[in-house]
């Protein structure tokens, strides 16, 4: 896969998405299997959650990602005619707090930090209120200089002011940053804000093949391969 070339500005800051990019959301599948009798409803729920987060931002409203996630689960219960109770909502919330990292992540982050990159995260999820964050639970938090949440800005990805806001907080230009994400809607938002972008091809995700739309600067199977491409 194509690496950084002389024509590509090498980033000094890598901005990581969290859900799917670093953390394996397939760990939530048993919750959906137990509730709906089909683990594939996880992907339906996540897709609807992303769609409604974008809808909330485009309509000028805001509600935090956890609240929205619970509400989308209840909505899917109505669609599938499955009763979703408070215990089910708590089971989902607890499972989300304790998801594990993808197997390549710790090694990839260590390598990137050793090579001098500044590492931060930008997630749709709100800050944790006392309990360990998913990154802390997965043993990843120490790798990152800062953990940014869209909750601070009151809009969801891929609103461009999130990416420019992160760059401003770090005292750099957007062009100094590379967004690292497993979702093309995230990489496109970052690129629209002036960042470069690396797409991590996690299972269930792929590059959108539209020639007139921005393609990721880099495409990698995982963070270990990304480190090689940035070398």
Which helices and strands occur, and which strands form pairs?
Layout: E1 13-16, H1 29-36, H2 41-58, H3 65-80, H4 86-97, H5 105-114, E2 118-123, H6 134-137, E3 146-149, H7 160-170, E4 177-181, H8 184-192, E5 196-200, E6 218-220, H9 223-230
Parallel strand pairs: 1-2, 1-4, 2-3, 4-5, 5-6
Question: How would you describe the overall organization of this protein?
Answer:
With 231 residues, this protein is an alpha/beta fold. It contains nine helices and six strands. A six-stranded parallel beta sheet has the order 3-2-1-4-5-6, sandwiched between helices. It is globular. The two termini are 13 Å apart. The mean pLDDT is 93.
What are its keywords?
alpha/beta; 2 domains; globular; 6-stranded parallel sheet; Rossmann fold; 231 residues; HAD-SF_hydro_IA; Haloacid dehalogenase; DNA polymerase, domain 1; 42% helix; hydrolase; 9 helices; hydrolase activity, acting on acid halide bonds, in C-halide compounds
**Averaged pLDDT, please?**
93
What is the structural class?
A: alpha/beta
**CATH topology-level fold name of the largest domain:** Rossmann fold
Strand content: 5-15%
The CATH superfamily of the largest domain is known as HAD superfamily/HAD-like
- Number of helix segments? 9
Oligomer: single chain
* CATH first level of the largest domain: Alpha Beta
**Radius of gyration from CA coordinates:** 17 Å
Number of strand elements: 6
Contiguous runs where pLDDT drops below 50 for at least 5 residues = none
Instruction: Specify the biggest β-sheet.
Output: 6 strands, parallel
Which architecture of the largest domain does the CATH hierarchy give at level 2?
3-Layer(aba) Sandwich
**Helix fraction by DSSP (H/I, runs of at least 4):** 40-55%
* Domains, number: 2
Order of strands, widest sheet: 3-2-1-4-5-6
Distance between the termini: 13 Å
Task: Give helix and strand order, one letter per element, not per position.
Answer: EHHHHHEHEHEHEEH
The general outline is: globular
Keywords: Hydrolase
GO molecular function, one term: hydrolase activity, acting on acid halide bonds, in C-halide compounds
Family: Belongs to the HAD-like hydrolase superfamily. S-2-haloalkanoic acid dehalogenase family.
Pfam families: Hydrolase
